[in-house]
Specification:
Elements: H1 3-23, H2 32-76, E1 81-84, E2 90-93, H3 95-101, H4 105-108, H5 119-138, H6 146-149, E3 153-155, E4 163-166
Antiparallel strand pairs: 1-2, 1-4, 3-4
Pfam families: PAS (PF00989)
Region (Disordered): 138-172
Biased composition (Basic residues): 156-166
């Protein structure tokens, strides 16, 4: 267990103990039967928590495997893929896209996608990208402006809400 996890568990324990202290009944006021019921409820609750914990761990393992499979597909795709943030900076790029634009991944990450475009494609991108975010927010999930879909651009909904594009002839 990492230091961060240990501190988090300690914090959770302290919170739980503070909550118990606020709501604690006097055990001396309880009958033997009430104490037995309470112990039974605590045992059942403990088993429920253990089962939930096992399920969470299983799901985390599945999620990690899925993420790893997606990462392999993304990075080894024969088409150039990249993910952009809301201002058009490159958040992620696969090796194919790097080869298409003649740069290594470290040079691309954090740089403007517009730098990878030339001529009219660059000005179209710069004028439409912000509108793309605003328009997509008003559209149904999964719908994309036809002008953008022609270029192979799609939006994924998630924690960081990035745009994904596959390489076109517009890239240098």
């Amino acid at each position: 267990m990492t230091q961060h996890n240990q501190e988090g568990m300690k914090h959770l324990r302290e919170k739980a103990e503070a909550s118990v202290a606020e709501h604690q009944a006097e055990i001396s006021d309880l009958s033997i039967e009430q104490i037995r019921k309470l112990v039974h409820e605590l045992q059942v609750h403990q088993i429920e928590l253990e089962l939930q914990n096992e399920e969470l761990r299983r799901l985390m393992t599945e999620l990690e495997q899925s993420r790893n499979q997606f990462s392999i597909l993304f990075h080894q795709a024969p088409i150039g893929y990249l993910a952009l943030d809301d201002v058009g900076l490159i958040h992620e790029a696969n090796e194919t896209f790097c080869r298409m634009v003649g740069r290594n991944r470290n040079q691309l990450l954090g740089s403007p996608f517009a730098d990878c475009l030339e001529g009219d494609d660059r000005s179209v991108f710069l004028s439409r990208y912000r509108a793309f975010f605003q328009e997509s927010d008003r559209q149904k999930p999964g719908s994309v402006d036809p002008e953008w879909s022609r270029c192979g651009v799609s939006r994924t909904h998630g924690r960081n809400d990035h745009r994904h594009a596959h390489g076109t002839s517009a890239a240098r």
